[in-house]
Amino acid sequence: MDITIDQRSIHVEQHGQGDLALVFIHYWGGSSRTWQPLMELLSPAFHCVAYDQRGWGDSAPADSYSIADLADDALAVVASLGLQRYVLVGHSMGGKAAQLAASRRPPGLQALVLVAPALPIP
């Protein structure tokens, strides 16, 4: 499915159901397909969500790709899907975006899972 964020199309994949959603954020150059095998394993117990970050996979490109933009997109996906309780799972650059999103203390965020996150830059 595609959702619209700031007049841009963002491709989202969802599997499973449940009270707690796992929101998967891929690495720079990846796509939601990166997470498909894991989502298939976890979907019997969790609502699994993976999306293509701006300009990757099936999502539309954008003019800006800052970490703040990527964090904004993550939280916009959560809001657009109406997720009440969720965990952000970020790999590499996706981990960096997840960290910034979590630092904003968004409602409903239960935990943060970082897989080899990129180092912060001043």
List keywords for this structure.
Rossmann fold, alpha/beta, 6 strands, globular, 122 residues, 3 helices, 27% helix
Could you characterize the architecture of this molecule?
The model has no long low-confidence stretch (mean pLDDT 95). The radius of gyration is 13 Å and the shape is globular. The chain is of the alpha/beta class and 122 residues long. It has helices at 36-42, 67-81, 93-103; strands at residues 2-5, 8-15, 21-25, 47-51, 86-91, 109-115. The protein has 3 helices and 6 strands. It has one domain (2-115): 3-Layer(aba) Sandwich (Rossmann fold), CATH 3.40.50. α2 (67-81) crosses α3. The chain has a 6-stranded mixed beta sheet with strand order 1-2-4-3-5-6, with helices on both faces. The termini are far apart. This is Alpha/beta hydrolase. Keywords: Hydrolase. It comes from Duganella callida. Residues 21-117 form the AB hydrolase-1 domain. Pfam families: Abhydrolase_1 (PF00561).
User: How many domain units?
Assistant: 1
CATH superfamily: Alpha/Beta hydrolase fold, catalytic domain
The rough form would be described as globular
Radius of gyration: 13 Å
CATH topology: Rossmann fold
Mean pLDDT: 95
Low-confidence parts: none
Strand content: 25-35%
Count of β-strands: 6
The side-by-side strand order for the widest beta sheet comes to 1-2-4-3-5-6
Helix content class: 25-40%
CATH architecture: 3-Layer(aba) Sandwich
> How large is the count of helical segments?
3
Biggest β-sheet description: 6 strands, mixed
Would you list the SSEs in sequence order as H and E? EEEHEHEHE
